[in-house]
Amino acid sequence: MTHASPLRVGYGTGMDGAGLKPGATFRESGRQLQEKDGQMDFALTDQQELVRATARQFMETELRPRLRQYEKEEHFPAEEIRKLGEMGFCGMLVPEEWGGAGADTVSYVLMLEEVARVDASTAVTLSVTNSVVAGPLLAHGTGEQKKRWLPRLARGEMLGAFSLTEPAAGSDAAGIEARAERHGDEYVLNGTKSWVTNGGEAGLYIVFAKTDPAAGRKGVSAFLIEPSAPGFRVARHEDKMGLRISRSVELALENCEVPANQLLGGEGEGLKIALAGLDSGRLGIAAQSVGVAQGAMEMAARYAKQRRAFGQAIAEFQAIQWKLADMQTEIDAARMLVWQGAAMRDAGVKKLGRYASEAKLYASEMANRVVYHAVQIHGSSGYSRECEIERLYRDARVLTIYEGTSEIQRMVIARELLGAGFGRSA
Ligand SMILES: Cc1cc2nc3c(=O)[nH]c(=O)nc-3n(C[C@H](O)[C@H](O)[C@H](O)COP(=O)(O)OP(=O)(O)OC[C@H]3O[C@@H](n4cnc5c(N)ncnc54)[C@H](O)[C@@H]3O)c2cc1C
Questions:
Q1: Cα torsion at 377, 382, 388, 393 (round to 10°)?
Q2: pLDDT tens across 155-174, in order?
């Protein structure tokens, strides 16, 4: 097998001989849910299957054996992420000319699902760098900005971070207080950013700050900042309930100096850029949710076949069987919403908001129901720190919170159903 840039395929999958060229790259590669003679086609292309198999194989062999130790030590899996980057998984939606994999969105969500099936922390690391950093840079960056950062991001040589949330403003993104003042040919930023995923590990941060506080939503601008910028500091690490091997930090911007040519898009376009990035970001979190739920269901099914009570495996009890059946049915329903959103993005649909929100809302809440039942099937073992399902239970909780809470997703969906006069943008 060759390890060709930009996307290495067939990682130990045994698929190299399946008529697929080893080392082939993933271009626009067909779509799901395509209308063909009035029929819906749910089949994945060979390339999409290969992305899925490659991600699964990597996560099972390279990360799963080390996860328990990493979790105990809160060790950020930099080495594994570097390898995932070499495989093209840090820049999946970035065209090959910019060093990316040039893959379709369906392949992207398949990759994230498979990563999250084993480890939700690694999935959010990849989701952020792909969806809300490389994506906006590709869409809104100048040629110069793309040249400087995009290939390195796309190849996973550096990670990206997205810094919108502040201690006093999360859902209400227009309420951020960070300020950016123009002084000659630079901006000076002051403020605090919280819950920055990949913070402390990233080589590039998209930071949102107000250039015109009087303009409300239209006064927010986006800046591309390297951690070496004067006045830029990681102030502290969050001590989280779950996702213990991902990084979440608070950033302090203290007279942080940023050259004017590191403004992303125009002044006042920050919120538009952030919200557009969140469309594919939310599909990513929805895919992460499906992966977490699938992993939990598989653990519960395995345990149910082993654990005996009243003289038989608990899997013999109809109560357990029905739980598992309901869990898988909900997972598949969520997966279809994720694939629908991804296929629509690949088909060039511009207004993805409602579909990304539906996928994120349903999949994240579904994942929490599924992990709840998975712990229940494990009984007391599921409550032990020694048992893997306990990690998934903690990891799942954030899915309904970040990249827009469930309440905010419902606002986005309802606004589209009812018209712009009802409910504000989120
Ligand atoms: C692990 C983790 C990683 C994160 N990573 C990032 C990151 O990389 N970058 C980043 O910028 N942010 C990140 N976040 C922040 C995350 O996006 C916010 O936490 C989220 O948007 C919610 O904001 P908040 O926590 O301030 O809650 P709040 O906005 O204070 O909301 C509190 C509650 O009120 C509800 N609420 C608020 N407004 C309304 C309304 N209008 N109608 C009904 N209910 C409402 C909310 O749904 C929620 O239930 C991360 C958070 C976590 C936990």
A1: 80
A2: 999 999 999 999 999 999 99
